[in-house]
Structures are given as structure tokens and as C-alpha cells.
Specification:
alpha/beta; Rossmann fold; 2 domains; 10 strands; globular
């Protein structure tokens, strides 16, 4: 029997809780924790399900967010979690690119980020790489590709292209970010 363990790093408590609830609704056990010293031991003892951690990075400095995200990612990796999800704010608040880059670098070679912020229940969707609220572009919000503009391994693809898009990027060693509407 395979033990499925999914690690989730959220930038605030609401995001951690919302993500954990989604896993519980799908029939998987889930838990929410705060980032703190000693959490790595808890992660190692966690047997099955999803563990969402509130990293509390959204309102902090980008450098601090990078360190916390890196540390938590390594903790999940060292504890043997098979999947890591870096939960993003559906309105792109916080340090989205910094935290995605930090998580991917700490997770290791072959990491892939699929960036598709959305919360349809409250009218937040992503279409053509742009965040929409109730069908209208979010005022003052950049296109998601622009958030990762400094990366040369970014491509925008449709959700139906995700498996093929990953295969096309699979041989590259650099950061792999795909924006899926």
C-alpha cells in the first residue's frame, strides 16, 4: 500500500485551511499547521494525507519569504513527501514568483510549477494567463507570465496541454514554470 503524502505551503492561514478543506472534501485526510521550529519532526511522523502549513509570508519581506519557503520545502522533501504544492493567492498577492522559485530550487532538479491561480466559487479565474474577478481583469494585476518575466523557461499553455507541455520542457535543467489558464 502506497502512503500518499502531499505537502502544502501557503502564504497565510486562510490559504492553508482552504487547501486542506479541498483535500478533505475529496476524501483525503488533511491537517493544518503553523510554520515553527520543530515542525520537521512532525512532518516526518505524518503518515498519510495532506499537510498544509501556514508559512505567514504574504506580508513579510521577500527575502524572509524566500528563506521560509526554502526551509519548509526542504523539510517536506527530507520527510519523504512525494508531492509539494506551493499554494498561491488567487489575486497574486504576496511574493508569488519568489516563493515559487524558492520551492522549486529546494525541491530539486526536475521540478515543475503549474501556475493557475483561481477560486471560482468567489468569481476568481485565470484565462489566457490573466487573473479575472467576475469575468473582468483584476485592476493593476500583471499577467502571470509577467510575474515570472525574468525566467527564460516560462511558457503559457492550456490545461489540456499540461502533460505534453511538461514532456516538452522535461529535458531542461532550469526553472520550469507553466502558466495554465
Amino acid at each position: 500500500m502506497t502512503r500518499t503524502r502531499i505537502g502544502i505551503i501557503a502564504d497565510d492561514l486562510t490559504g492553508a485551511a482552504d487547501t486542506a478543506v479541498a483535500f478533505v472534501s475529496a476524501g483525503m485526510p488533511a491537517s493544518v499547521r503553523f510554520a515553527r521550529p520543530g515542525l520537521a519532526k512532525e512532518l516526518a511522523a505524518f503518515s498519510v494525507g495532506a499537510m498544509a502549513v501556514d508559512a505567514a509570508t504574504r506580508s513579510r519581506e521577500p527575502e524572509w519569504a524566500q528563506v521560509v519557503t526554502t526551509t519548509l520545502t526542504r523539510d517536506f522533501c527530507d520527510a519523504g513527501f512525494g508531492i509539494l504544492s506551493k499554494k498561491l493567492d488567487s489575486l497574486l498577492r504576496g511574493h508569488v514568483a519568489t516563493e515559487v522559485r524558492a520551492a522549486m530550487a529546494a525541491w530539486g532538479r526536475g521540478s515543475l510549477a503549474i501556475v493557475a491561480p483561481a477560486f471560482p466559487a468567489v468569481g476568481r479565474t485565470t484565462i489566457d494567463g490573466r487573473v479575472l474577478v467576475n469575468g473582468r481583469p483584476l485592476a493593476g494585476s500583471p499577467r502571470i507570465a509577467d510575474v515570472f518575466a525574468s525566467e527564460d523557461r516560462v511558457q503559457t499553455i492550456g490545461l489540456d496541454e499540461v502533460p505534453g507541455g511538461y514532456r516538452a520542457m522535461n529535458d531542461r535543467e532550469a526553472l520550469k514554470v507553466m502558466i495554465a489558464p
